[in-house]
Here is the input.
Amino acid sequence: MYGDHALVFCSYMADKFAHDGLGYRYWLAVAHIIERTNEMLMLSKTYQVATYESAEDGDYAEDGFEFENEPFSFRELVQALDDYAEPSDSRIGPRTWVSTYPEIDYRTGAETTYNLHFVGPESKRKYWVKALNLKFNRK
Here is the structure.
């Protein structure tokens, strides 16, 4: 995501500080975060709220992102998939996303559905498909 240039910059900045100082540890921590992010799957979580009125209009009352481009390890992804009920396609593939069953607000009748989408990097998409197959027991 950030590339080697960011890691070189962090190393350069860390060397500007005493090796037992806070600045040194700060830049090494930033480098560690960048390295970890480069190894992660990036995911986004969206939501849609449907009300009786919006359903009549064929639209959602509200939609948006819970989070965008968040890093997940493979283990975190597999754990997160426990919250999702079904894939978007009957045949799991690289463009499949997953959805929850609607959460119903019984006071208003509004139904909220959450979706988890793979964002990148493309080199990690095979792990997204593997996790979906593990969760939904398909090959």
